[in-house]
Design goal:
Elements lengths: L8 H11 L8 E2 L17 E13 L4 E12 L3 E7 L4 E7 L2 E2 L1 E5 L3 E5 L9 E10 L3 E3 L5 E7 L2 E5 L19 E10 L3 E4 L2 E8 L2 E12 L6 E4 L2 E7 L2 E7 L4 H8 L2 H12 L7 E6 L15 E3 L4 H9 L7 E3 L6 H17 L5 H10 L6 H6 L17 H18 L1 H14 L3 E3 L1 H11 L6 H8 L9
Parallel strand pairs: 1-4, 2-13, 19-20, 20-21, 22-23
Antiparallel strand pairs: 2-3, 3-9, 4-8, 5-6, 5-9, 7-8, 10-11, 11-12, 12-17, 13-16, 14-17, 15-16, 18-19
Helix pairs in contact: 3-4, 4-5, 5-8, 8-9, 8-11, 9-10
The protein binds tryptophan and zinc ion.
Length: about 475
């Protein structure tokens, strides 16, 4: 038996509102930001990037970068236009689906693209942006410098929180992770080190071309390209390929600690569970080349040879930060509190101070030499930095780690390490926020009351009344 359904005009309208209709209904413009509480114009609404194919040609002598970004994405609704983030650089052309698209630049870093035809909600599309210029150095709200940094012997792409938009166009917000192919063409004699694995290096006609690929999702702030003279050492940690690149000037100072990468990886996997990526390593630049170390995916960047705690910190970010990535810049303590806690755990496990000793010293104000620094721990609640300039301040690091220690003391070691591993496993390659974490902890230990910890340590102003 068959029934034919005849829809009246009101019903048709309703169906169109619910599912969208072809023809007649126009796509809308995707938004120019995703309303991040600290960087409202970072990222863009209306689409989700699945893959970046970057082809870069860099000339250190002139600092000129010529780039092609092939951006594969999915429209989340019908779109007449969408934005990419790109700071500086000249855009030569944009194509969408193989057709030239109109584009214009506005604000600090908005590149608006208007495809010839609207994109349908749910459809995949490919945008190709050709651009060139001398990339800008970006100064963060906290005063640190990033973007595409010229170094003594090349350049370094560094991007937390917003530097990556200085060297490739994209959806530059941690909420939209994607895989990457990064092909970089430089003068012969220089090395290029990036995220993921090196698939091929070809040298021809005075140029060297490096083809890097990472297939796991990467947040754009932990993408890097390092161009320069490097001593490259390949080894294995268990079955995991290790690729370490060290500036020759740092090679001697760095050798001992970098040789410990397999040991650190084994220790980290024991504590935090299976490593979420396909290779590991490190990139060591000269001390003056960058203002901060960064947990760039697979292999962190260090300005100068790191100590073992800093190595532990950046490698553990691969679990907490790179695999489990904050939904917004407000959730930074989920990165830094965990990576700091890992440093304390490393010391505790290797004959140093216990985590409880560190916690007590911080609480009593004996941890830092300077009083101002000791007081700084209590400047604001870890989960609520007051502004963008302070997302990398001490409360996010030390007090964030203290929150974890409060949880450990409440649930005991067994459940605590289950929580650390379960959080990394459950949110693997995804995004999470503070509410997700507190809910996860509460579920893991349903008989405990965590409200005091959340209220006083995570969200409360000032130094909590009891340790
Ligand atoms: N994530 C880096 C580290 O811990 C430090 C850092 C650089 C940072 N820029 C930031 C942290 C911006 C938070 C926000 O090694
Ligand atoms: Zn960190």
């Amino acid at each position: 038996m068959s029934r034919s359904v005849v829809l009246g005009p009101v019903a048709v309208l309703l169906v169109c509102v619910l599912v969208g209709c072809d023809g007649g209904v126009e796509g809308v413009a995707g938004s120019s930001g995703v309303r991040d509480p600290y960087f409202p114009k970072a990222g863009n609404g209306g689409y989700d990037v699945t893959h970046y194919g970057l082809t870069l040609d860099y000339e250190p002598r002139t600092r000129r970068l010529v780039g092609k970004a092939e951006i594969r994405a999915r429209a989340e609704k019908d779109l007449s236009a969408f934005n990419l983030d790109l700071k500086g650089m000249d855009v030569r052309s944009v194509e969408v689906g193989g057709e030239p698209a109109r584009f214009n630049r506005s604000g600090d870093h908005e590149l608006t693209v208007r495809p010839r035809e609207d994109l349908g909600g749910g459809d995949s599309f490919v945008a190709v942006v050709r651009y060139e210029g001398v990339p800008e150095v970006v100064t963060d709200p906290d005063g640190s410098e990033e973007g595409w940094l010229p170094t003594e012997d090349g350049a370094l792409g560094l991007g937390e929180p917003t530097g990556s938009m200085a060297w490739f166009p994209g959806n530059h917000h941690p909420g939209d992770k994607a895989s990457y192919d990064i092909v970089v063409d430089v003068p012969e004699g220089l090395e290029v080190v990036s995220v993921g694995e090196l698939r091929e290096k070809t040298v021809d006609g005075g140029r060297a071309v490096f083809d890097w690929r990472v297939s796991e999702p990467v947040a754009s702030y932990v993408v890097t390209v390092a161009v320069g003279e490097f001593e490259v050492r390949r080894s294995v940690a268990g079955r995991l390929p290790v690729y370490v690149a060290v500036d020759p000037e740092e090679a001697e100072a760095g050798a001992e600690v970098l040789d410990r990468i397999p040991e650190v990886m084994e220790w980290a996997q024991d504590n935090f569970g299976p490593y979420p990526f396909s290779s590991t390593g490190a990139i060591v630049e000269r001390e003056d080349d960058a203002g901060y170390a960064l947990e760039t995916q697979n292999r962190p960047v260090f300005p100068g040879a790191p100590g073992v705690e800093l190595l532990v910190h950046e490698l553990v970010h691969q679990w907490y930060g790179n695999s489990v990535t904050p939904k917004s810049w407000r959730d930074m303590w989920l990165n830094e509190g965990f990576a700091t806690y890992a440093e304390w755990l490393w010391d505790e496990d290797h004959g140093g101070d216990s985590v409880q000793d560190v916690f007590d010293a911080l609480y009593e104000g004996d941890y830092f030499e300077e009083e101002a620094e000791s007081d700084g721990v209590w400047a604001f609640p870890p989960a609520r930095p007051p502004d963008a300039a302070r997302i990398s301040d001490s409360p996010v690091y030390e007090r964030g780690a203290m929150v974890l220690h409060k949880v450990r003391r409440t649930v005991g070691d067994e459940v605590f390490f289950d929580i650390l591993r379960g959080w990394a496993a459950g949110r693997r390659h995804g995004n999470a926020d503070t509410d997700d974490f507190t809910a996860f902890v509460e579920k893991a230990a349903p008989d405990e009351d965590f409200s005091g910890i959340w209220d006083d340590w995570l969200y409360g102003e000032g130094r909590p009344r009891s340790p």
